[in-house]
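Practice problem 4.
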C-alpha cells in the first residue's frame, strides 16, 4: 500500500478523509483536500483524469505540486503508470522530475449583477442556459482583456 511505503520512507502522509473512510484506514492522519493543500508539499492522486481534475480544482488554490497514479482509462493528466508507480514516485521524491504548469480557468456565473458561483477548471468551462436552442450571452476575460459572445448551445 502506498501509505505504508511512504511512511517507511520517512514521509509524513495525510490521507484525504473520504478515502481513509472508504478504505477503512485506522490510525492514519487525515484531512480535507484544503487541509492537504495547506500542509503538504506534494499531493499524490490515485485514479483517473476525473479524480485528478477534481483534486486539482481544490488544490489549485495552494502552493502544492500534484502528481497522479493512473487507475482510469485515458491517463492524460495522470503521470505515473500503476505497474511502476512506486519506483516512478521514488524518482520524483528524489527530485528527478519535470514540472508542468497548467492553465487554470475561472468561471463566475452571475445573474443581474448578483454573483452566483465561482468555479475553477483545467480543461474547459461549459455554459448552458438549461433550455435547448436558447440564446445565451456571456462575457469572457482572457488575462483581464474583455470579449463578449452570444451563442446558441449545440447538442
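Answer key:
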Amino acid at each position: 500500500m502506498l501509505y505504508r511505503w511512504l511512511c517507511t520512507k520517512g514521509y509524513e502522509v495525510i490521507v484525504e478523509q473520504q478515502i481513509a473512510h472508504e478504505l477503512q484506514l485506522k490510525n492514519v492522519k487525515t484531512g480535507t483536500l484544503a487541509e492537504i493543500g495547506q500542509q503538504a508539499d506534494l499531493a499524490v492522486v490515485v485514479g483517473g483524469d476525473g479524480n485528478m481534475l477534481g483534486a486539482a480544482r481544490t488544490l489549485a488554490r495552494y502552493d502544492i505540486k500534484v502528481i497522479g497514479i493512473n487507475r482510469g482509462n485515458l491517463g492524460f493528466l495522470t503521470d505515473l503508470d500503476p505497474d511502476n508507480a512506486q519506483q516512478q514516485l521514488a524518482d520524483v521524491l528524489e527530485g528527478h522530475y519535470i514540472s508542468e504548469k497548467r492553465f487554470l480557468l475561472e468561471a463566475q456565473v452571475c445573474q443581474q449583477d448578483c454573483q452566483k458561483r465561482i468555479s475553477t477548471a483545467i480543461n474547459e468551462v461549459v455554459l448552458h442556459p438549461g433550455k435547448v436552442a436558447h440564446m445565451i450571452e456571456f462575457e469572457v476575460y482572457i488575462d483581464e482583456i474583455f470579449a463578449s459572445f452570444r451563442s446558441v448551445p449545440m447538442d
